[in-house]
Sequence to fold (379 residues):
Amino acid sequence: MTSLRGRLQRGTAVAVIVAAIVTLTNAYGVIFAGATENSRPVIAYVVNSAINTVTPIDVSANDASKAIRVGQDPQALVLSTNSETLYVANAGSSTVTPINVRTNRAETAIRVGAGPQALAVTPDGKTLFVADANANSVSVVALATDRVVATITVGGHPQGILVSPNGHSAYVLDWSSNEITPIDVTTLRAGTPIPVGSYPEAMAMSPDGKSLYVANFGSNTVTPINTQSNAAGKPIRVGQAPNAIAFTPNGGTAYVSNGDSDTVTPINVATGQAKKSVKVGSSPVAIAVSPDGATVYAVNSVSGTVTPIKTANNRPGKAISTGEYSYPLAITVVPTSHLAEVVDTYSGQVSTINLKTGRARKPILIGDTAFPLSIAVVR
Fold:
């Protein structure tokens, strides 16, 4: 399987990343974590897949620091539970690079399986799970030693992974075999694969951990999975080419972006029924929910905009431009603020949007050949 960068360069419509904004899990990693020190600035870390770096950006100052060198073709990133270390998956070098977020220095790389695409940390902070897309496996890293302690065989081309809120199970999105592989975190054994739709592109878990929703890009459906029984429910019909998904904080609604329908579909989690789709911009590829659950933000790649949707009535607001000739692919909303960070992959820049005014600041240019993919915000 090629990296996400390779798939995008061929023009394939894919999900955004990772991901999730407490943790969003899709093709682009998008995460937030908060430290206990209020004096620490809010820093956005951007993975630049084409130039093998991670760029720290001071969100308040709208200023980039010196880039941090990592491995080849970095794809995704995840933060430790204590907000001290950022882990970067390097698909080209089959490694994970730890970065000390206090010093912004890369530490010794961890060798994992071939083509790592996604990462997840257990809630207790002890274990890192790495989806090795080219090895059809998951590498399990003990974070006390930064060593791989197990390798678990899963389905075809795993490109997503998440851990349940209670820390009991990990779920792996197996893209080419159309299934989800559950893993027992205690025994480190894979369970029976759960069949889903064609080419699953993204997944998200409800805040209570009881439901896992999988967006099936090739089937135009979402598969709900009961995590107590690991049984798949009746597929939910959504728009064309669903590629990203996120739950509201209360778990009542899941929102799905449909890349080829230019819509976002809300799903009532209690009934498993899709509501009327919301028209947004052209080719939505990422979705984020505000911390208070009042607004959903859809990233429209071809339009170069972000569409806010009020969850009270599912009505779209005025689209927010991310700049002339922009092609945004990832977003994270910064909790306890009115800001969002948007990654523009093709132009190699990052924009900060003021969600109150609906305007973007002057973009920060990472590099027109940087191909930034993923973003994490650390406070």
Observations:
- The mean pLDDT is 90.
- DSSP finds one helix and 40 strands in the chain.
